[in-house]
Amino acid sequence: MDAVAERAVLGVTGLSIGLRTGSGEIPITEDVSFSIGRGEVLALVGESGSGKSLTALSLMQLLGANLFVAQGEILLDDGVGFSADIAKLGTRGKAIQSIRGARMGMIFQEPMSSFSPIHTIGQQIAEVVTVHETVSRKVARARAAELLEKVGIPDPVGSLDRYPSEFSGGMRQRAMIARALVCGPSLLIADEPTTALDVTIQGQILELLRSLRRDIGMAILFITHDLGVVAQMADRVAVMYSGRIVESGPVRDIFRNPLHPYTRALLDAVPRLGDIDRGRRIRPISGSVPNIFDPPGGCRFHPRCPAAVLPRCAAAMPPRFQSDGRMVECIHGDKALAG
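^ that's the sequence the OP posted. Answer follows.
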C-alpha cells in the first residue's frame, strides 16, 4: 500500500464496553485496540459470544439499552478533513447521526430485519441520501438506482419500486450493501454478512465486496466466525476471545503461524481439502466461551487451553507482546514471536 492507503481510517484504542445492571457495571469487552487503513480489510474473528458484534455496534454508537462505551477512543478519519472520536459523541444528537450512514456504513447478517417491509427498496435507500445531503428526491432516487446497478441488481430503476419481500435473500443483501454505500462512507462494517446465505450467493456477495473495496478504496471491518471467508477477504486478522483481542496480524502470518493457543484451536477446528487423504482429524475446541457475567480469572482462555500453566495463567491477565505487525496476549507470546 502507498502512504495514503496506510493512513488509518479507523483507529480503536483501549475500547471497553460495559453493561449496567441493578448490582453495578459489568465489563463486556476490555482494552480492545485495532486500526484499519484505507482500502484495507480487517477481519474480526472468534466464536459466538466473543464480543465481535458488540464491538461493531459500538463503533456507530448503536449499543442496546444498558450497554455503553466505558472507555477508549474510536477515531474516524476520512483523510479529507474530517476527524472525530466517536466514543465522545454519545448515542444521540446531530454529531453521531451525521456519521451513521454517511461516513460509516453497516451491513448486517439478516437483511430482511434491516429493511422496513412497508416501504420500497428505493424509498429506504433514497432516504439515507436525503437525511445526509440537501438534494431533491429525484436526485436521491437516481443515486439509489446507480448503487443498485453497482451492486449487481437487475433492472435497478424498476427495482426501486419493489418491496423487500419481493427480493431473494441474495438480492436483499445486495440492496443493503447499496444502502450502506449510497453516501460514500469511508468505512464499511460488515457483521456476518454472508452467514444466512447459501454457498453460491455467499460467493457472489464476497466477490461484490472485494470489487467495491478495489474500485472505491474503502476500508472494511469484516466480522465473521468463518475462517474460510477470512482467507478470501482479509488483509489482517484480529482474533477476539471473551471480550479481548488475543492475537492480531497479517492474514497469511496468522494462518501459517498462529501464536495464541486459541487461534491454533480455531484453525485446527476448520475442515480442509484433503483431510481424509492425509489422515487429518478435525479437533473441536473443548468447553465453551465463558459467561460474560462470570468470566474466569486471569487469562480468559486458560480453562480450555492445552498450553495453560497453572496457577500462573489463572492468577493474572497475560502480558501483551508485539513485533513486526504481530500481537499476541499470552504468557508464551515472547517465545512464539521469537520462533
